[in-house]
Amino acid sequence: QVQLVESGGGLVQAGGSLRLSCAASGVFLRINDMGWYRQAPGKQRELVASITTGGNTNYADFVKGRFTISRDNAKNTVYLQMNSLTPEDTAVYYCNAPRVWIRTWASDDYWGRGTQVTVSS
């Protein structure tokens, strides 16, 4: 069974920073892209950022210049450095690995349980 476990959320004042981590554990061969999504109350889940195995990144417009996604392939861990936070960034942040190869012929999509980020004004 593969698990994605997020950590690093919390309460921070506007303008502050947080660093989220997501570690994958279990039995698998490799993980392709990894990403972070967020869901605020009453809103749909939205992509924040994603990163390929090779380090190519993609960001939502609303975080460009403020957030940085990175990964450590050896540790099967993805990070999200969040700077210049605003109250609009308040949400539950979820880690996603859409293609985790369990067998050479089979992959699956995994999500973490989420970590709460609250930004006070």
Structure described in brief:
This protein is an all-beta fold. The protein has strands at 3-7, 10-13, 18-25, 30-31, 34-39, 46-51, 57-59, 67-72, 77-82, 91-103, 106-111, 115-120. The strands form two sheets. Strands 2, 4, 5, 6, 7, 10, 11 and 12 form an eight-stranded mixed sheet that branches. Strands 1-3-9-8 form a four-stranded antiparallel sheet, with no helix packed on it.
Describe the structure.
By secondary structure, the chain is mainly β. It has strands at 3-7, 10-13, 18-25, 30-31, 34-39, 46-51, 57-59, 67-72, 77-82, 91-103, 106-111, 115-120. Strands 2, 4, 5, 6, 7, 10, 11 and 12 form an eight-stranded mixed β-sheet that branches. The chain starts with a strand and ends with a strand. The mean pLDDT is 96.
What value does the Rg take, in angstroms? 14 Å
Bulk shape: elongated
Low-confidence stretches: none
Give the total of beta strands. 12
Mean pLDDT across the residues is: 96
Cα distance, first to last residue? 40 Å
Largest sheet properties: 8 strands, mixed
Strand content: over 45%
Helix percentage:
under 10%
The ordered H/E elements are: EEEEEEEEEEEE
Question: Count the helices. How many?
Answer: 0
* Structural class by helix and strand composition: mainly beta
